[in-house]
Amino acid sequence: MTTYDADGITLEKVRDYVWEIPQEGGMNRPARVLASEDLLDEISEDKTLQQLKNATHLPGVRKYAVCMPDGHQGYGFPVGGVAGIDAEDGCISPGAVGYDINCGVRMMTTNLTYADLEGREEELVDSLFEAVPSGLGGGGVYEGTKADVDAILERGMEWALEEGFAVPADLEHCEDEGVRRDADPGRVSQKAKDRGKNQIGSLGSGNHFLEVQRVTDVYRDDVADRFGLSEDQVVVLIHCGSRGLGHQVCTDYLRDIEQAHAGLLEQLPDKELAAAPAGSQLAEDYYGAMCAAINFAWVNRQLIMHRTREVFEDVFDRSHTDMEMDLLYDVAHNIAKRETHEVEDGEERELFVHRKGATRAFPAGRPEVPSAYQDVGQPIIIPGSMGAGSYVLRGGEQSLSETFGSTAHGAGRLMSRTQAKQEFWGGDVQDDLREQSHVYVKAQSGATVAEEAPGVYKDVDEVVRVSDALGIGDRVARTFPVCNIKG
User: Fold this and answer.
1) Residue 309: CB partners within 8 Å, gap ≥ 6?
2) Interhelix angle 190-197/281-316, nearest 10 degrees
3) Tens digit of pLDDT for each residue in 266-312?
4) What tens digit of pLDDT does each residue of 309-324 get?
């Protein structure tokens, strides 16, 4: 048997790209890492493997906890981690969801080609930067009233449609049609609502961005055609989440759960995994608040997309309908959703599927997949760095059996933000990208650019290759940056 040893943790090779940490001690199930040996070398450089092993101590974990190929150390639970936890006799863990609830990504297609855009990159990046609020703190496309915030938390994208910020097809092409029906605005603190009130339609900072891209490669012509993708086409990627509102929801419930369920906390190897037992009042309250934050994040991305459509209309002097600026799909990261999956011995159970820095990847035929994609599978969008390609995938046939219908969510960090700022200078990164790759980047600060330099991330090509080889997310198309705005 082939094994891999990393800092006292031994992984056994199950088959190509599948490594298992056997169940031992307080582990309720084994843990699995999906990676090539090169990626496994990178994953093992921080505390990812220990965090994954710790996650199997959560009560109700079914089958195994899984780390995706882009995995890296997070708060308690690794980024790139997935766990299906029994919704009846298990638990729900805010730390296994993350602070930026529904930090997700959406792609908008157009009928423009790179030739239509070439020579106008600077005008476009400047216009987008001026029109789309970014950076730390407040400021958004829309500052709502208290009633607006409650309506957004409850109805998600339906609110955006009613207010003229969306068209019906936007909802049809969004995960859950842009609305979590379990949302309960009453479970969101006033402090969280106040933090989100003036951030509706804003990118924030960190790894969030708006990027104009061109399609460089198509791997599955039939699926790409269904997704509306073709070579040399201009597309737009939007990556952001629930801003201060989602962060506050996580903060509030972590504190409450730590106090109310101290007994369970004592049984866990890391207090950052604090969890509320399924069926408890705090589990129900957190789930309602988390779903409300998911709705808020969808509206946040929708308003940014609405503003992007307006910018393209101004720059290209055509209506967004003439340019066929349509939502391909919006996928959520950092969630724990009730889903039914097959577990041990073929039994079907309702689970809280925790996807922290992981993407839902349902194959064709799963009822949650939009009707437009029912026979090809759910679109998946995996961003790379500013100097590398991004990918569009489709849900793979093996995703349900291997990963509770999940795959990677990006390239995955190689180094911390602090280390990145020590090794890179933002202005140099911008100059290099423009001169060497013809990528135009604009940000609120050079530090943000340094934190997100291409060298900070794993090889997204390798991450996607592993996903494709395992059949959990199949390559459909590749894109490359043209313009990028950041906080």
Assistant:
1) 108, 320, 325
2) 0
3) 999 999 999 999 999 999 999 999 999 999 999 999 999 999 999 99
4) 999 999 999 999 999 9
User: Tell me, what's the pLDDT at 328?
Assistant: 98
Among residues 329, 357, 355, the alpha carbon closest in space to that of 237 is found at: 329
3-state SS string over 263-307? HHHHCCCCHHHCCEECCCHHHHHHHHHHHHHHHHHHHHHHHHHHH
Task: Provide the whole-model pTM.
Answer: 0.96
For residue 106, the one-letter residue type is R
Q: Give mean pLDDT, residues 216-224.
A: 98
The answer, yes or no, to whether residue 138 has pLDDT greater than 80, is no
Phi and psi dihedrals of 320, rounded to 5? Answer: -65, -25
Alpha carbon distance 12, 2 (integer Å): 6
Q: Which residues are catalytic?
A: 409
Q: What angle do CA 109, 112, 116 make, to 5 degrees?
A: 145
Is the pLDDT reported for residue 444 higher than 80?
Answer: yes
Q: Give 18-29 pLDDT, tens digit per residue.
A: 999 999 999 999
Distance, first Cα to last Cα, the chain: 48
Task: Determine the Cα–Cα distance for residues 249 and 131; give it in Å rounded to an integer.
Answer: 28
Rg, C-alpha atoms of the chain: 21
The angle formed by the CA atoms of residues 405, 410 and 411, to the nearest 5 degrees, is 130
Of all residues in the chain, the percent with pLDDT exceeding 70 is 100
What tokens were used for 1? 């048997």
247, with CB counted inside 10 A (0-12, 13-18, 19+), is buried
